[in-house]
Amino acid sequence: MADSSAQPIAKYRSDYQAPSYTIENVALDFDLEPTATTVRAVSTVQRLDPQVGDLVLDGEKLELLSLKVNQQEHQHYQLSEGQLSISDLPERFELEIVTQINPQANKAFEGLYQSGAAFCTQCEAEGFRRITYFLDRPDVLATYSTKITADKAAYPYLLSNGNKVAQGELDNGKHWVSWQDPFPKPSYLFALVAGDFDLLQDSFTSRSGREIALELFVDKGNLERSEHAMASLKAAMKWDEQRFNLEYDLDIYMIVAVDFFNMGAMENKGLNIFNSKYVLANKQSATDSDFLGIEAVIGHEYFHNWTGNRITCRDWFQLSLKEGLTVFRDQEFSSDLGSRAVNRIKNVRLLRSHQFAEDAGPMAHPIRPDKVIEMNNFYTLTVYEKGAEVIRMLHTLLGEQAFQAGMQTYVERHDGQAATCDDFVNAMQDASGKDLSLFKRWYSQSGTPVVSVQTQFDAAKQQFSLTLSQSTPATADQPEKLPLHIPVSIELLASNGASIPLQAGGKPVSEVLELTQAQQSWVFDAVAEEPCVVLLQEFSAPVKLDYSYSSEQLLLMINHASNTFARWDSMQKLIAGWMQQAVAKVQQQQALELEPAIIATFEQLLQDQAIDRGLLAELLTISSENEIADNFQEVDIDAIAKARDFFIEALALALAEPFAQLEQRCAEADQQSLAHSDIAWRSLRAACLQFVGFSQPQRVAAAYFESSLMTDKLAAMAAANTAAIEQRNSMFKDYEQQWQHDGLVMDKWFALEASFSGGDALARVKALTEHPSFSMENPNRIRSLIGSFANNNARHFHAKDGAGYCYLAEILTLLNKQNPQVASRLITPLIQTVKLDKQRKAMIIEQLEGLAALDELSKDLYEKVSNGLQQLKG
Ligand code: TRP
Ligand code: ZN
């Protein structure tokens, strides 16, 4: 901030106050024009707090045209930055406000804006205040009716929340439609869309026999890419009835796909708006992981109808109430429909590679934050993914039945309300009878706990004792930490791989140990030999484990652990152990080598016909540089990259034949359908191609040129990157020529170009910003090109000359004014850098100081830059 008096102010969770007025219903009337849209809002307002006089409404980037109270022109108001304060008001009245806005100039994509030729809205978290002056907070629940008037030829579809109640035509070429949403909702769930689309229609019969119309709106020409999204929606509706006993409530459910969208999708009541990335897919243009992503996000937004919309958040500090729970629900949906083990592995990879770093970085916050400057900065991996882990721990502690009883209590108590995280845990506690008072600390404490392990075996008594200690390192936001309630799911393995039943005092004991103190011990009886203890089965808590297993123990678990996730996790530990030593060797300029035991482990896996194909693919996928970095106190970017490169190439050359054979077998076995078994074959093939490129690059090129499936093509391109094969150029050229008209498909190409470590990656990225398929206005393009470079090409982004940092700062300067939300997400790799060396930190500080000095620095960047500087300097 150039002007220090204009420093943004923080809001604190502890300052919550109930609203002093409420709005019971609102009638909105839009006259849509690209540069001058008028919005008439007629609200029924009721005073709640007799002590309060003025009604203070939120409003940003609005031009006030008129203000009436009970149909009379009202003069008693004051306009200030972001607020309209109205005085001399009766207790209950009709308020009419007319504002004018400019959707075309809105490149921040918050409020009403244009995506291509269409109008659309994004109101979460605080975007409704860019449409009209309002009590823009989630604990004000109103019923909405919305009339939209627009040119009929350009905007044949006029959509809003709820049911269509009337429509008509005007003489001037315009038409209008009226919508009514019977369910009271907070303003962040309001939506409006106007445009010309192709429409995919279907229907779903709910379990109570109601016929619900399903409508999916996509850009013209994209119908052939919209079927999977519709199928996913129907699957989600059915699953929520069966697993959570929750049925849809309106008679119509609409989804609109738009190209310009800051996030993944938005759960607006009855009218979801989606980033087209999470709708459009066919086998030629999208990968299996795109298909799975669509299924998950369609599910996620649908599940919000109960966990988010019918029951919403009291204030934004409670965001995880709806997001953590809804992510848990979408994870369960994906796991019930597909592979539970593969889903768990992918979620844990994400947590370890990015959420743990967030929790150790300058923006560390509990899943229910205490202090917020810009709410948009708190749609984080912590609130979403760690939030889902917290719900999952409840599920582990209670079991499915008691958890579902808790859900029912929660819905019965809070339907139609704006609730808190405490309300949710209380419902779980009351329905299950389990004391969750200590568990609530997960909501207020940030940071990743470390659980350390000590074991003892008494052969004479046949007793095995296990001592677990927990501690959470201080974080940027909280110096002091307390013990948490941590479920640790365990198994004891005998040396032959058999599972030893858990018992104490002659009685069976649960495999879920509840660690609630700083240190606790458990003794197990009837243990005939010293066992190997499998810890954190299914990743039962979002913690780090401090326990050095021997290689023999790791191999035993890889082969015999009952829990599939634990087998994979043991493999990760085996690789991590090697990486730890290898990085030290690189730093001491010693030669690296791959032990025969590791090679043998991989060889045995490659020959294993019985192991699940999807799981094998994950076992063969070497941890990313980000995942590896999480295991280090100090991160040496170049040494990690070198060690990882060596591991992959050495393994590829040592096992060239088995990798090639398995790759071949996968190609033959794949029936090219979207069945999960075929997805597994293709992911296994992709995992093998990563290695095959080093010995048989022509096989990689063949996978690209001979397959018609995008999954195979992209797997080949990624493999071409890894082994930097000669055929890489022709593959990438071919892709570009085929898809340059289609930005969404080009995103995959931009991402691979940006993460390729060969050549001068920074120069390549800079040049690609001039590519005809690139646009600095489209968030998807920016994330694919610039985001991939900064997040997935560490050795170039963190280049010793600081050029990568300098470039990112330039881009952020550009985006600061235009789209602060996107800028603020892009800055992450520049601020999550506490573990770097002094020289790099100094260069980062310089860039952050440059940003801090910008005129009109957005609140979004201000919060991140100032926290980043504080941690780096402190
Ligand atoms: N509630 C949305 C979801 O979880 C998140 C979201 C979509 C969002 N668009 C946004 C949050 C814009 C902040 C700003 O799916
Ligand atoms: Zn959500």
UniProtKB/TrEMBL annotation:
Residues 67-189 form the Aminopeptidase N-like N-terminal domain. It catalyses: Release of an N-terminal amino acid, Xaa-|-Yaa- from a peptide, amide or arylamide. Xaa is preferably Ala, but may be most amino acids including Pro (slow action). When a terminal hydrophobic residue is followed by a prolyl residue, the two may be released as an intact Xaa-Pro dipeptide. Pfam families: DUF3458, DUF3458_C, Peptidase_M1, Peptidase_M1_N. Its EC number is 3.4.11.2. Its cofactor is Zn(2+). The keyword Protease applies. Residues 447-547 form the Peptidase M1 alanyl aminopeptidase Ig-like fold domain. Residues 552-869 form the Peptidase M1 alanyl aminopeptidase C-terminal domain. Gene3D superfamilies: 2.60.40.1840, 3.30.2010.30, Neutral Protease Domain 2, Peptidase M1, alanyl aminopeptidase, C-terminal domain, tricorn interacting facor f3 domain. Keywords: Aminopeptidase, Hydrolase, Metal-binding, Metalloprotease, Protease, Zinc. One of its GO terms (molecular function) is aminopeptidase activity. Residues 229-442 form the Peptidase M1 membrane alanine aminopeptidase domain. The keyword Kinase does not apply. It comes from the Bacteria. It is an enzyme of class 3 (hydrolase). NCBIfam families: pepN_proteo. Belongs to the peptidase M1 family. This is Aminopeptidase N.
